[in-house]
UniProtKB/TrEMBL annotation:
Gene3D superfamilies: Sodium/glucose cotransporter (1.20.1730.10). The chain crosses the membrane at residues 6-26, 46-70, 76-97, 117-135, 155-172, 184-202, 230-254, 266-286, 320-347, 367-388, 394-413, 420-444, 456-475. InterPro entries: Na/Glc_symporter_sf, Na/solute_symporter, Sodium:Solute_Symporter. CDD domains: SLC5sbd_u4. Keywords: Cell membrane, Membrane, Symport, Transmembrane, Transmembrane helix, Transport. It is a multi-pass membrane protein. It is found in: Cell membrane. The lineage of its organism: Bacteria, Bacillati, Actinomycetota, Actinomycetes, Micrococcales. It holds the Pfam family SSF. Residues 499-523 are annotated as: Disordered. PROSITE patterns: NA_SOLUT_SYMP_3. It comes from Terrabacter aeriphilus. This is Na+(H+)/acetate symporter ActP. Belongs to the sodium:solute symporter (SSF) (TC 2.A.21) family.
Length: 523
């Protein structure tokens, strides 16, 4: 444990600075569009910084280094997959999704499938994925403050919850965008600056004597463990395809001006993430040399925070640890705020909102924010101590098994029907969510069943795609009535004057319900 008063001051300063930046965004938030998508006016550079700040979570800042320290070269697929996922997002989803005009993934499901049931199922999945992703953020916050002060984990969890609420409640997406962009550059600086000092001192310091007791051959050779080939390919599939199905990532592309801006944003995100992910890997390697005892102690996730104190003493160690603590806290805040915005947006549109007016919409959004944060903290307290990065892996598996097939097939195959999409969401979501619940709450299962539950994507993703295709072919008569118009909306550049339909997300639930009742009466 690091006893560092400077770190506590750094955490407080980050929280205050985040609230100050969010308060500035509040001055710009006036309409429902401001709260949900920042009025679709965010520039590519600002949006790329905000997406990167939101995406680089507790798993990226602490978890990657911890897994590299504990499990070696096989874990390099995590930063590779989390970055490469944006390449697939760029190629298949970014521009069409922006052109859809939707606010949320349930909006897109309703536009493309013309089904209230598909919308409701998508809403449930958005809430489930968001809550699952929030759990490791609050876990990481508790771990950080416990490492720095010895305080119980719940202290850090509640501290992040309070700051997140104060950031989101006043200004919604408009405030969050500015906060997350600020957090990306803070996190990059927080990792990069101590690394210069650590690398400079590494050559002159002796290694930890315990390093000889570690099985180095298993650490540097890939695919050494039991079922390693399956686990690796399943991890690759989850990380490559899961990015495009994460609600808090996808919602950020709705904030761009048009499809072209969405593509430019994605390219910028690839550059920003590629530079960042080199850093936690280096921390994991250095931790293997100077802090291998953290693995046996079950504190591998804290290697980033503890490494400076292993190489330095006095004010320098305290200052570097304080900077890392500030970056770690920014990681929890930025990802948590994005997740809360995406979950609150869906809850306020589909479950909490009681009217269609501007004030009712904002009131529902704020109430949904409080509900999302409270439930996430409760689940974090109740769940088992799954490593932070592995908890995020499981969330990626759920996203890859549900929204990824719906988006890819919905955008590029006009034959997708509502029954087909719903069947695929149920199959992929059921299998992957079962694995998440089993792993998160410590339900032990042995043999191949246990392996699949640890990394379900290699089974659940193909089954979800196959189910959607076969069920859609079996229900060709249920092809959405306006699918041709929807395809024009998704793929035609915005400057072309074409009939793109009259879909508007704020009116979508009621208009589709009326159309469904009208169709039922005619039949």
């Amino acid at each position: 444990m690091v006893d560092n008063a400077a770190s506590i001051v750094a955490v407080v300063l980050v929280s205050v600075a985040s609230l100050a930046v969010g308060a500035f965004g509040l001055r710009l938030s006036r309409t429902m569009s401001d709260f949900y998508v920042a009025s679709r006016g965010v520039s590519p550079v600002l949006n790329a910084s905000a997406i990167s700040g939101e995406y680089l979570s507790a798993a990226s800042f602490l978890g990657v280094a911890g897994l590299v320290l504990a499990r070696g070269v096989d874990m390099l697929w995590l930063p590779v997959g989390w970055t490469a996922g944006y390449l697939l997002l760029l190629a298949f989803v970014a521009a069409p999704l922006r052109r859809s005009g939707a606010y949320t993934l349930p909006d897109f499901a309703q536009l493309r499938l013309e089904s209230v049931l598909a919308r409701r199922l998508s809403s449930l999945l958005v809430v489930a994925i968001g809550l699952l992703y929030l759990i490791p953020q609050f876990q990481g916050a508790g771990l950080t403050l416990r490492t720095l002060t010895g305080a119980p984990s719940w202290v850090g969890q509640f501290a992040v919850a309070i700051v997140v609420c104060l950031n989101v409640l006043p200004g919604g997406m408009r405030s969050v965008t500015l906060v997350q962009a600020f957090h990306y550059w803070l996190k990059l600086l927080a990792l990069l600056t101590p690394l210069f000092f650590v690398l400079g001192a590494a050559g002159s310091r002796s290694r930890n004597p315990d390093v000889g007791a570690v099985d180095v051959s298993a650490w540097v050779e890939p695919l050494q463990g039991e079922h390693a080939l399956y686990l690796t390919y399943s991890l690759v599939l989850a990380t490559f395809l899961g990015t495009m199905g994460l609600p808090h990532v996808v919602v950020r592309f709705y904030t761009n001006r048009d499809g072209r801006a969405s593509r430019r944003t994605t390219l910028a995100v690839l550059v920003l993430l590629s530079g960042f992910y080199l850093l936690p890997v280096l921390y994991g390697v250095l931790g293997r040399l100077y802090a291998p005892d953290l693995v046996a102690a079950g504190r591998a996730d804290s290697v980033v925070l503890e490494l400076p104190s292993r190489l330095f003493d006095g004010p320098l160690a305290e200052g570097l640890t304080a900077l890392l603590a500030a970056g770690a806290f920014a990681a929890f805040l930025s990802t948590s705020t994005g997740l809360v915005v995406s979950v609150a947006g869906v809850l306020s549109q589909d479950l909490v909102r009681t009217g269609t007016g501007h004030r009712q919409g904002i009131r529902a959004f704020r109430l949904s924010t409080v509900i999302a944060v409270a439930v996430s903290v409760a689940l974090t307290v109740a769940s088992a101590g799954v490593p932070v990065a592995h908890a995020v892996e499981l969330t990626f598996a759920v996203a890859a098994s549900t929204f990824c097939p719906m988006l890819v097939l919905g955008i590029w195959w006009r034959g997708l029907t509502a029954p087909g999409a719903i069947a695929g969401l149920v199959v992929g979501g059921g299998l992957s969510m079962g694995a998440v619940v089993s792993t998160t709450f410590g339900i032990a299962t042995h043999g191949w069943v246990g392996v699949v539950l640890t990394q379900p994507a290699a089974v659940s993703v193909p089954l979800a795609f196959v189910t959607m295709v076969l069920a859609s072919l079996a229900t060709r008569s249920r092809t959405p009535e306006h699918v041709a118009q929807t395809m024009v909306r998704l793929h035609a550049p915005e400057h072309l004057s074409l009939n793109r339909g009259s879909f508007h997300p704020e009116r979508a639930p009621r208009s589709t319900a009326r159309r469904a009742r009208s169709t039922a009466r005619r039949s």
